[in-house]
Amino acid sequence: MRILVTGGAGFIGSNFVHRTLATRPDAEVTVLDALTYAGTRASLAGVEDQIRFVQGDVADESVVEPLVAESDVVVHFAAESHNDNSLADPSPFIRTNLVGTFTLLEAARRHDVRYHHISTDEVYGDLELDDPKKFTEDTPYTPSSPYSASKAGSDHLVRAWVRSFGLRATLSNCSNNYGPRQHVEKFIPRQITNVIDGIRPKLYGDGLNVRDWIHVDDHNDAVWTIIDQGRIGETYLIGANGEMNNRDVIALILELMGQDRDAYDHVTDRSGHDRRYAIEAGKLRTTLGWTPRYESFRDGLEATIAWYRDNEAWWRPMKDATEAKYALTQEVVA
Ligand code: NAD
Ligand code: TDX
């Protein structure tokens, strides 16, 4: 099977490539990645000689067209992915997430190539902390940020291409991922690398915001399950019942790293900050038989901390610039 992985030098995409090569001997992998600030070939170290790597933009038709034409499956991870960046400058989010998806869809349509679209639970907006309901495939779209609005728009494009053009596509909307090779701008790696550097972790607002954490390998196993068995045109929510508020996550990181559980700072809150995400993944579990393998968030987090401790050379080049950018908009409030 010839598989084109867009965004394969980013966090989830690179983990997908590593996992695919380890578990799918029939896969011939091509990675298409623009190597923005968020992508690095270092994330493909150890597998570079088993894949083809193409540096290019998913919104550039001349790059996308021949690569899609010679593929059996496209898995589209490439995106601008960080909410805070989308508040500072939404424009690359529109180009990559909307025009990029459109460009891939058109190529997949021309060549009748199977397409899987990677998306996020943030398209569903947020939930109250005490809401007994979780997101399902039927929850209406109410995205809050430029990032989540651009992902919502990309999902709508995929569904329209299925209905109007018969594109053979599936979609998945996953909750917050954690694991190795996640950029240090994101919540968990930012705090782990802060503690390693002797900087106090930074909590937005009151820190009671809840995220539904899933290990990146569980996400990627679910993606393969959907590629193998998913019904064309269907959307599957991916989540592993990992709800935890940010305050508790920071306290756990501090504890696992041998610090006081309250040794963190409160900083300026994110504008429009979603309160809570929670996924009901019953459809994926029941109809396709997927189950997560990481049952303990504590164990998965401990392994992730160990990865950042052991791989400083991977994250060090991005750390100072990331913190300098945050310093422009965030200050310690307590
Ligand atoms: P990431 O920012 O770590 O990686 C994105 C990758 O895409 C990078 O390698 C970057 O260089 C590449 N890229 C960006 N613009 C590009 C362009 N125009 N052309 C080609 N490549 C480009 O992101 P991630 O966290 O790995 O997220 C991957 C996908 O998963 C995204 O679609 C995101 O919306 C989705 N998702 C992420 C999470 C999460 O918790 N991180 C959860 C659910 C869904
Ligand atoms: O320093 C921080 N302190 C803090 O309290 C950072 C960076 C974040 N936060 C909070 C904001 C969120 O409530 O932690 C939570 C998680 O933040 P992010 O890592 O920025 O993730 P989130 O905004 O929830 O979005 C993530 O999950 C859904 C991914 O970045 C998206 O790509 C994905 O779609």
Describe the structure.
The protein has 334 residues and is α/β, with parallel strands linked by helices. The protein has a domain at 2-178 and 215-238: 3-Layer(aba) Sandwich (Rossmann fold). It has helices spanning 11-23, 61-69, 83-88, 91-111, 146-165, 187-196, 216-229, 246-256, 282-288, 297-310, 312-329, and strands at 2-6, 28-33, 51-55, 73-76, 114-120, 169-174, 177-178, 202-204, 210-212, 214-215, 235-238, 243-245, 265-267. The strands form four sheets. It has a seven-stranded parallel sheet with strand order 3-2-1-4-5-6-11, sandwiched between helices. A two-stranded parallel sheet has the order 7-10. α1 links the parallel β1 (2-6) and β2 (28-33). The chain starts with a strand and ends in a 5-residue tail after the last helix. The model has no long low-confidence stretch (mean pLDDT 98). The structure holds nicotinamide-adenine-dinucleotide (NAD) and thymidine-5'-diphospho-beta-D-xylose. Thymidine-5'-diphospho-beta-D-xylose is lined by residues 81-83, 120, 122, 176, 186-187, 190, 202-204, 209, 211, 246, 270.
**Approximately what portion of the residues adopt beta-strand conformation?**
15-25%
Number of helices: 11
Shape type: globular
Kindly report the spatial arrangement of strands forming the biggest sheet. Answer: 3-2-1-4-5-6-11
Kindly state the percentage of residues in helix: 40-55%
Cα Rg: 19 Å
Note poorly predicted spans: none
Give the N-to-C terminal Cα separation: 54 Å
From the helix content, strand content and strand pairing, which structural class follows?
A: alpha/beta
Cofactors and ligands: nicotinamide-adenine-dinucleotide, thymidine-5'-diphospho-beta-D-xylose
Number of E-type strands: 13
What does the average pLDDT come to? 98
